[in-house]
Predict the structure.
Amino acid sequence: MLKILINKNYNRLFYKQFFLNSKTSNKINQRFNSFNFKFSKSIKMENSKDLKLNIETNETIITKNETNEITNQNCATLNATNSQSEQVIFRTIQEGLGKVLAKDKEVFYNPVQEMNRDLSIAVIRLFSQMLIEESQDVKGKFRKKSKIITAKSSVPINILEALSATGLRSIRYGLEIGTDLVKNIVANDLDPVAVDAIKRNIEFNSIPQSFITPSLSEATILMYNHRDPSKQFDVIDLDPYGSASIFLDSAVQAVKDGGLLCITCTDLAVLCGNHMEVCYSKYGAIPVKAKHCHEQALRIVLQNIESNANRYKRYVVPLLCIHMDFYIRIFVRIFTSASEVKSAGTKLGYIYQCTGCSSFHIQPLSRTSSSKFTPAPGPIIDKKCNECDSIFHMGGPIWTNALFDPEFVGKLREHIQQAPLKHEQSSIQQKSSTAYGSRERLCGLLGAMQNELPNQPLFYLSDYLCNIIHANVPPAIKIKSALLNAGYLVSGSHTEPGALKTNAPPKVVWDIFRFWAKNIAPIKRNLSLTSPAYKILEKEIKTNVDFTERTEAQKQSIVKYLPAPQVNWGPMARATSGKPKKEKKRKPKKKLKVKPIFIKKDQNKTEDNNGNDNNNSNSNDNSTLLNQNHQQSL
């Protein structure tokens, strides 16, 4: 047995090249074939501690836990396929009911996405129950019949995870959703190392490959090959590293009529306006920089999915679109109907964002009247903002309809609340049950979404509006009550604490803050006559402002925004597939060559009686020569 014991600061390059390679045994045997068994030898590597090797038999055992220390605890054993039978011990990762075997940076795995996977499992379970209800609906309550012949989703469902990596998501789908709702799962990846890991993890969880099928293929090609109605999937899950835009065209064709698309995008820097030109090239929309950037990101991706679906006489119906941590997660159903596609323009609009006071206006693309679609009138704004005389930035198009189905979100939150806690997972008897590790955070986000206005796009931020006019921030209940007393709707947003989502026009919103800054909490301000604050405060208040508190505006006893569970909670680096990174050779810096300066002495130089040099006659010549040599050296 070749037991490799490596301390915490081992050399990773050596570890990858010699002990994670499929030809491990051959390389080691060639190097140590002249030694007898049962001995130890130390090998010193550059920039690393000693590696102690104990050779006993022809089997290889590598152990490593999550803290990068080599131990024999909390590890799993697997028979590797090699000419010489090897037994390799990997680091085990358990999430929900699924377990995977992991090597260091071989295949991408991010524990942050546990919340993503928990939510996906809950959504797919409820989606399956929706399909059962729709199949029992004789009167067509849920769905109108389409004239286009397509395959419709039914239970049990088949699922495609197009970008599977370790296969953990597919394994959890199979174990926690259950065979009564799931017929088959395809776990696909382009990387052969990842596909080997998927097969290894399927075997490790004792799941037959007829239930979870590993696939080595490019994701778009695989989905294009399943465009035929007889081959389409009920659920397609896309969780790429970055943008999902390149997969959307094939995904909307490979899903069944009434099927579910689950899409993740982690490129929020692009979607929130830091790289406007990149966002337009990927999603066909221009983002504007504003405090509502995360909700804007959801609406940009939604309009891009709708645009891809409309090309094939299909349209989307959002079930749940949510922003979590550093990414967005979108769950939409895809239906086929040529008549519904005609109304696509009424779901989209452009943003006019003021650069001075953060006011925004939505310009619809089209409108409908008596089943006829006509262009929407416009523009709906003047050249400059009516509140601060600043210019507007234009963005879009974005999705302007609802981001979620309130009834579905309510059922989803109730389902997650009824799930057992994580420490109660060992007492679960049925395999179709699950313990959501992120139950508290999910319930908080879904609770905030339940109280959110579904059909009102974008929002204001109270503290930012007060910062513009240099005023004290009023309590949220005061502002919400004033809007309710003025006859408008108001709510928060799950994307940002302190958000103010309302259907009131910017004039009314600013009248309330003007009244607060002038009459309720006045402070001394030295404002420039050209500043937005001065121009906003000098406007006349035309709205009847009433800060009487309303019960609807009071806070609910729901923990909505929980802190991150760990330090450095965010995205991780890409997987390297076990290959060490190539170090870039730095070119040595060129040394500057400086030419020496020579000063010629005067041959006619004499000394006076006091010993001083008498070179007055040639002083000008020497200084001229010195200047010339100095210029040449430069």
In short: The two ends are 69 Å apart (CA to CA). The chain has a mean pLDDT of 78.
